[in-house]
Amino acid sequence: MAKIKICGLKRLEDIEYVNITKPDYIGFVFAKSKRQIDIETAISLKERLNDDIKAVGVFVNEKIDKILEIENLNIIDVIQLHGDENDEYIKELRSKTKLEIIKAYRDSKYADYSLFDNINPGSGETFDWKIINSKKKYFLAGGINSSNIKEALKLNPYAIDVSSSVETNGVKDFNKIEEIVRIVRDER
Q: Which of these is catalytic: 7, 24, 77, 161?
């Protein structure tokens, strides 16, 4: 019964695609990345996003005040920490927000979920899934595509997280999004 997250949305067309395909989560990347968006773009995209789809804000070693500013603008429903944030940082953030928190690369007792990805997020490269050892519900990312997603689902992740595998020439591709969402839903 895995959920699906489409990460790295940047354009109005991307929002149209997910409003049709209805993944459980989408990701807005606020960290330095080729998929990074600014606050104004995120506001515009979120206004058009179906209310049933949760928007995840992706941050890397961001100041807590900046995350809270974005939360207070009602742009995000979930916080994803994809950097070197330690338990002390996550504990402080947890004390200032009611939003769910996803922590990449390891379990944190202060995060709601873990996320496992390769060391080059967004690159489309897979990693050795056998090393996953989580006591928490987790998101699985890193090179998941239509040819290996059924294998990924056998690991019973809470959610599958894709980005580059649903792109063509660096932009989101409706047909690829539709296919990956369908496969996850068919396996539920």
A: 7
* Contact (CB, 8 A) for 110 and 87: yes
| Maximal C-alpha separation, the chain | 42
| Residue 7 is among the residues annotated as catalytic for this protein | yes
The residues pairing with 3 across neighbouring beta strands, listed in sequence order, are 159
Question: With contact defined as beta carbons under 8 Å apart, do 83 and 66 qualify?
Answer: no
Distance linking the first and last C-alpha atoms of the chain? 4
Active site residue 51: no
Q: What is the DSSP letter of 41?
A: H
Q: 142 CB contacts (<8 Å, ≥6 apart)?
A: 116, 117, 118, 121, 125, 126, 127
Q: Which of 171, 157, 159, 178 is nearest to 22 (CA)?
A: 178
Structural contact between residues 166 and 6, judged by C-beta atoms closer than 8 angstroms: yes
At 11, list the tokens.
């354009």
Q: Which of 14, 24, 117, 161 is catalytic?
A: 117
Q: pTM of the predicted model, to two decimals?
A: 0.94
For the segment 109-164, what is each residue's pLDDT rounded down to a tens digit? 999 999 998 766 555 667 677 778 788 999 999 889 999 999 999 999 999 999 99
Per DSSP, 36 falls in state B
Distance, in Å, from the CA atom of 14 to the CA atom of 156, rounded to the nearest integer, reads 27
| Rounded CA separation 70/106 (Å) | 24
